[in-house]
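Sequence and structure are no longer studied apart. As an example, we show below a sequence and the tokens encoding its fold:
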Amino acid sequence: MELLFVDYGNMEVVPATNLRYLTPALATHPAQCVQCSMYGIEPAGGDRDWSKEACLAFARLVEDQKLTVTPRTVYGGSLSLVCLYLFDSY
């Protein structure tokens, strides 16, 4: 079975034996992910989109880190701007 993980946005193929039914109480809730962009941060050089290299570098920097997201601005319900905070554990 191919699954979309709404929390991380990735897709994976998993054996059907690893699947479980979602309880009716949990099934009433909508997916808990929101498309967002970081407030005040833009790609270098005036580019509209982030390069693949920049996205991978950002992912390496924040992987396994504690991050806190604070809503800053919401546009029409589909895109939000957020402040992203990285907490140093030292």
About this structure: The longest helix spans residues 52-62. The helical segments are 24-27, 52-62.
